[in-house]
User: Fold this.
Amino acid sequence: MQINDLHKKYGRVHAVNGLSMQVNQGEIFGLLGPNGSGKTTTLGILLDVTNKSSGEFSWFGKPGNHKIRQKIGAILESPCFYPYLSGFANLQVVAAIKEVNKNRIGEVLKVVGLFARKDDKFKTYSLGMKQRLAIAAALLPDPNVLILDEPTNGLDPQGIKEIRDLIIEIGNTGKTIILASHLLNEVQKVCTHFAVLNFGKKVYQGSVNEALSGETIYEVKAQDLLLLEKTIKKSAWIKLVDKESDCMLVSLPADKNAAALNQALAQDQVYLSHLSARKKNLENEFLKILSKSNA
Amino acid sequence: MLRLLRIEWLKYRHFKLFWIIYFLYLLFLVIFTSSGVFVLDFFDQKGINFGELKPSLIPIYDFPDIWQNITYFAGFFQFIMAFIVIIFITNEFSYRTIRQNVIDGLSKSQFLTAKISFIFLLCLINTIVLSINGLILGLIYSSVTEFRFIIEGVEFLFAFGLALFAYSLFAFFVGMLFKRSGVSIILFAIYSLFAEPFITVILQNHSGVSGFYARLSDFFPMEAINNLIQNPLPRYILREIQNYISGGELAIVIGYVIVFIWASFYLLKKRDF
Assistant:
């Protein structure tokens, strides 16, 4: 999937402003951004429900059309189904639109765990079940590309975990997934690549691993913080990065590890009450990227 | 085409309100057009006469006059079709399923083709039901049952179907425009029952309006659709009536069919969902 200089204006609001990006086959791609940053608008344009103001996009190297959409599984925002039809009958409609064999309906309902409720009307479903039915619908054509916009919106923690496991499971089968979300934890857990949008512009694109790599920061605590600080400063290779109210943050050269740190401090009669590696997380990186782009 | 109709069928087959109203419509159509003889008998008993004629002797079900008679009166129920069609299209907006349909891989023109084919099919069924009903009534009551008289005037059945289709497409367009059933039904009713008839009456009867402007109402959608089949009753008090389908009036209605389809497609293309 490729986007070139995409624009969308709603009156004076420039919802998507010169967006260009590319998602490659097999990536689990997180589309991040604060509310109103243009995520859903962008996906809407890719799926032909929102008219672009200008720009180009292509799927598999070809301009988008309904034949391609038949092969893509997509949920945009809330699940939309006919409330007076059963889950099964709703999927029959989707299967007819996507020209998929009816046998798939039972299979996907089993995948999302709705098979037992398939004959109940959609309006009787809980929010989690509606969301799962939407995912079932998206899985119907056994799609190579899955587009999920806030798939865990409004779900309880158990539901969130179920959907997340499902996404990872689907991602492991080699499918491309584009996941729009503002839940960074979620993206960090499932995505391989991500892009950050702000005010309709792309402010970052890269792989999750790259964004989270770099030197490790260690948190250390001791009874006597002053002594700890003095000792660290005396050391030739321990680098004090920052002081927090109850702990010191230090970084180490590449050839030393946490054990070496602990040993060195103990030799100076400083005994640590706490030592832990602080992993970078996407949330911090995301906020850094955003504040940089806002500046 | 069949695939598109099948999609519509899958969507609506379990939509009870829709089918209840539709079958009520068909029932009204049959009962109302069949009740002519009983109504005339009733007039007889009450001693109501039309001119010199005894009402029960009026040959309303004689071939070929029967076709204009029943299609004219069947037209009274077209507002039920408008109601059905508005529910049929605005549902897709209120459930946001139109958006999901497009996301799932229906092109906008396919969506529209599916909808309009389904409406066409309903109008076709209505016309066929009315034809069969007319044929049965004629065979029971008509003094002539020769084949050439039976098929004379069947163009009125075609006109009935076309008028109903055009009328339904107008309702469809209104539904597309306003997206919500309540608003659409109210505005459609205000336009078709009050606004247009009111302006028509003024144009046709006001002394200050003459010539071309007095005929302007012939180009209004409701008026054009209703003009297609003229009131046949005056012929029974020996007045001149238009007992044929006028080519010009037909052209206006066909024009409206094209305009409503085009305008609906324009809305669909232009809008974001």
